[in-house]
Amino acid sequence: MPIVRRSEAETHEIHGARFVSYAAPRTGSRELCAWRGEIPAGTKAPAHTVLHLLTGELLITLDGRTERVTAGDTVIVNPGATLAVENPTDRTATSWVTTSVGLTAELADGTVLTPPWAN
């Protein structure tokens, strides 16, 4: 039975945000990846698939429409959608993200991001 202990979770930092990976192929998950994201105050973060906000609040722009989300809200991002995540507050926001194995994201500058915590 695959169990990932808190002390065994892998931490990655990119674009000013921290991602703590729990479920991925390297930890025994065949189809899903899941991680906790920490988005510091004033940070804009890269794309996700399903983002559940645990603490804080964020501005989410999905396909050109911007909404403020708060703790307990969930954002569903379908394939091909354009997503921007911003924390305009003075506190870190914490999210739980779930996606299929093999996530890639194209950043605004055209860079294709293949997050190590999602593969």
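The record above closes out task 2.4. Task 2.5 opens with a second protein, given below.
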Amino acid sequence: MKSERSVGIDCLRAISIIWVLLYHFTPLQVFNRDTFGVLLFFIISGYCIAFSVETSQSAWHFYAKRLGRLLPALIVCGLLTTLFKHVMSNLVEPGREVTWFDYAYTLISLPTLNVLHVDHHLPDGAY
């Protein structure tokens, strides 16, 4: 089945991302309204995930699609974060250091599972 992108959903997603960026990087009060951009992004994500469930052949197919979509970003972003924290260690706040083991274990356990119950630190709070 060919998936078709919705221009309207993509526009709402762009608005929510821009809103979050402006919230973080501009002092303008108009963007400092709670977490509007994040909430909008989560609403859009919920809609898209529900659509993905409907178009999946099985639960395993759905999870394989999600893993295939999210794992590459986790690998790249975790690698860049860990590398940055090692190369620019003087900019890292105390207590937010991360080891290469922490990065590797994050990929194995996936951030919320911690399947082996190992004491480790995520590369950053966003993970």
